[in-house]
Specification:
- Strand 9, helix 6 and strand 10 form a beta-alpha-beta unit.
- This protein starts with a strand and ends in a 5-residue tail after the last strand.
- The strands form 3 sheets. Strands 3, 4, 5, 6, 7, 14 and 15 form a 7-stranded mixed beta sheet that branches. Strands 10-9-8-11-12-13 form a 6-stranded parallel beta sheet, sandwiched between helices. A two-stranded antiparallel ribbon has the order 1-2.
- The chain contains 11 helices and 15 strands.
- It is of the alpha/beta class.
- The longest helix has 13 residues.
- 29% of the residues lie in helices and 28% in strands.
- It is globular.
- It has 2 domains: 160 residues, Medium-chain alcohol dehydrogenases, catalytic domain (Quinone Oxidoreductase, Chain A, domain 1, Alpha-Beta Complex), CATH 3.90.180; 127 residues, Rossmann fold (3-Layer(aba) Sandwich).
- Helix 4 crosses helix 5 and helix 8 packs parallel to helix 9.
- The protein binds NADP nicotinamide-adenine-dinucleotide phosphate.
C-alpha cells in the first residue's frame, strides 16, 4: 500500500507532542475523492484539542493517534466510483472531518465529493485552505446575530482568523462596523472597512458608544466587559464555546438576546466566499506558513493569540 506523511498526536499535551507519522494513503468510498493536500489551515480548535481540551478531545481520547486539521485545499487525485461532480486534477477546498475526525494535517485525505468547493485559478490554494472554518464561523455568527444594513456592530478580535473575515462580511452587509484590536493591528483592521478600536485605550463603551449587536470572538471577561456597549434589547453572539454560557448568562441579566454557537460545515457558504475571493470583494490575510514538519511552531503561533489573519501549513504546496 502507498504510504503518506501526516502530523499526529499520540497523547495530549504541549505543541511538541505533534510528530510526523507514516500512514497508508486512504481509499475513497463511492461518494468520496482522494485529495493530495497542498495546504491545511490551522485553527485555535486544533491546538485546544491537541492540548486535551474540549469535546473533540474527550471523544478522541481513546482513539489516538489523532491527526488534526479541518481546513484543506489541494488537488483531486482519485475519484470514488459514484463521483460525477469532480474530475481528477480539479483544485478543491473544504471543511472536513469536523469536529471529531480532523485529518487535514496530511499529504493525502479523503473527503465527501459534495462537501468540496472548486477553487478557481484566480484564488490561491493558500487562501482556499485558510478560508473554510474561519469563514463559515464568521458567516454563521453574522447570520445568527441577524446583522442588517445600517446597524452598528462591534466585532471583538477583528484582526484574527475569524474576525478579519467577519469584519468584511459585515461591511458587505452594509453594517457600520467597529472592531477591537491592539495598536499594532489598527491600520490592518481599518483597511478592512471597520472603525478600529484599540482595546488598550480605555473602556469600549467610552470609545464607541452604543451598538445594536456584538460578535464576541474573545469570550470570558473580555466578552462580558463588552456587553456594556450593547443597547437595551440588543443581540450578542459569543463564539468561544468554553465561556459561552457565562457570557450569555451575563448578557441575559442585562436584558440582551444572547447565544453561543458551534460552526457547522456548509459548502454553499464556502462557495459563496470563494466567489467573493475570486471577485476581490473578500481578502484573506495569511500571516504565516509553516512546513508540515514545523507544525509545532504553527501551534505555538496560534496559541500566542496574536495572529493577524490566518496560519497555514504548507504540505504539497510551494512555500
Ligand atoms: N464556536 C465555534 O464554532 C468556533 C469556531 C471558530 C473559532 N472559535 C473560537 O473563536 C475564537 C477566535 O478564533 P480565531 O480563529 O479568530 O482566533 P485567532 O485568529 O487566534 O485570534 C487572534 C486575534 O485575537 C486578537 N486579540 C487577542 N486579545 C485580544 C483582546 N483582548 N481584544 C481583542 N482582540 C484580541 C489578536 O489581535 P491583537 O494582537 O491585535 O490583540 C489576534 O488578531 C477562538 O477562541 C476560537 O477557538 C469558535
Amino acid at each position: 500500500m502507498k504510504q503518506c506523511q501526516q502530523l499526529a498526536i499520540t497523547r495530549f499535551g504541549e505543541p511538541s507532542v505533534l510528530a510526523m507519522q507514516s500512514a497508508e494513503v486512504p481509499q475513497p468510498t463511492a461518494s468520496q475523492v482522494l485529495i493530495k493536500v497542498a495546504y491545511a489551515g490551522v485553527n485555535p480548535i486544533d491546538a485546544k484539542t491537541r492540548a486535551g481540551l474540549g469535546w473533540a478531545a474527550q471523544q478522541n481520547k481513546d482513539k489516538l493517534p489523532w491527526v488534526p486539521g479541518y481546513d484543506i485545499a489541494g488537488v483531486v487525485a482519485e475519484l470514488g466510483s459514484g463521483v460525477t461532480n469532480l474530475s481528477v486534477g480539479d483544485t478543491v477546498s473544504g471543511f472536513i472531518g469536523f469536529p471529531l475526525l480532523g485529518g487535514g494535517y496530511s499529504e493525502y485525505v479523503v473527503a465527501e465529493a459534495d462537501a468540496l468547493s472548486l477553487v478557481s485559478e484566480s484564488v490561491s490554494l493558500v487562501e482556499a485552505a485558510a478560508l473554510p472554518l474561519a469563514g463559515q464561523t464568521a458567516w454563521q455568527a453574522l447570520e445568527k446575530a441577524q446583522i442588517s444594513a445600517g446597524e452598528r456592530v462591534l466585532i471583538l478580535a477583528g484582526a484574527g482568523g475569524v474576525g478579519h473575515i467577519a469584519v468584511q462580511l459585515a461591511v458587505a452587509k452594509g453594517a457600520k462596523v467597529a472592531a477591537t484590536c491592539s495598536s499594532a493591528n489598527v491600520a490592518f483592521v481599518a483597511s478592512l472597512g471597520a472603525t478600529a478600536v484599540d482595546y488598550r485605550q480605555g473602556p469600549l463603551a467610552e470609545q464607541i458608544g452604543q451598538i445594536d449587536a456584538l460578535i464576541d470572538l474573545m469570550g470570558g471577561d473580555v466578552g462580558i466587559a463588552a456587553l456594556n456597549c450593547v443597547k437595551p434589547g440588543g443581540r450578542v453572539v459569543t463564539i468561544p464555546t468554553i465561556t459561552a454560557e457565562a457570557v450569555c448568562e451575563q448578557a441575559r441579566q442585562r436584558g440582551l438576546l444572547a447565544e453561543g454557537m458551534l460552526v457547522s460545515p456548509s459548502v454553499e457558504q464556502n462557495n459563496a466566499m470563494m466567489a467573493m475571493l475570486q471577485a476581490g470583494t473578500l481578502q484573506l490575510h495569511v500571516a504565516a506558513r509553516y512546513a508540515l514538519s514545523d507544525g509545532e511552531k504553527a501551534h505555538q503561533k496560534i496559541e500566542s493569540g496574536r495572529t493577524r489573519g490566518k496560519v497555514v501549513l504548507s504540505i504539497g504546496g510551494s512555500h
